[in-house]
Amino acid sequence: MTVAELPEYIVECPEGYKISLNKPITIDSANVQVLTMREPTVQDMLAAEMQAKGQSEANQEIAMFANLCSVAPDNIKGATLKDYRRIQEAFKLFTA
After folding, report:
1. Quick count: other Cβ atoms within 10 Å of Cβ 8?
2. Taking a C-beta distance cutoff of 8 angstroms, is the pair 76, 60 a contact?
3. DSSP letter string over the chain?
4. By its UniProt entry, which Pfam families does this protein fall under (predicted)?
């Protein structure tokens, strides 16, 4: 997917991608409408594996996304499924 093909809710930025959420999530008592996801490293992948050791692949993915977006895993878990799919879509752009 090229930048021209990005959906309107994902915008490339110097830090990585900005993801506009359909429904805000609450972080530290503030409603957050946009998450910024930085490009992952191999170390991020290893850290997510260790953090979610013995848990499901979904929990490992949530740990990875939370780290890349600089939020707590519970913040990602509080997103709607539609917004979670947007986060997954942004992540896939780094691995394409």
Report:
1. 6
2. no
3. --GGG--TTEEEETTEEEEEEEEEEEETTEEEEEEEEEPP-HHHHHHHHHHTTTS-HHHHHHHHHHHHHTS-HHHHHTS-HHHHHHHHHHHHHHH-
4. Phage_TAC_7
**Tokens for 7?**
């959906």
How far is Cα 25 from Cα 41, in angstroms, rounded to an integer? Answer: 25
Mean pLDDT confidence for 58-83:
96
pLDDT at 3 over 60: no
The one-letter code for the residue type at 33 is Q
Give the residue carrying structure tokens 């946009």.
Answer: 34
Segment 44-65 shows an average pLDDT of 91
Residues 6+ apart with CB under 8 A from 94: 16, 39, 40
Backbone CA torsion sign across 12, 17, 22, 27: negative
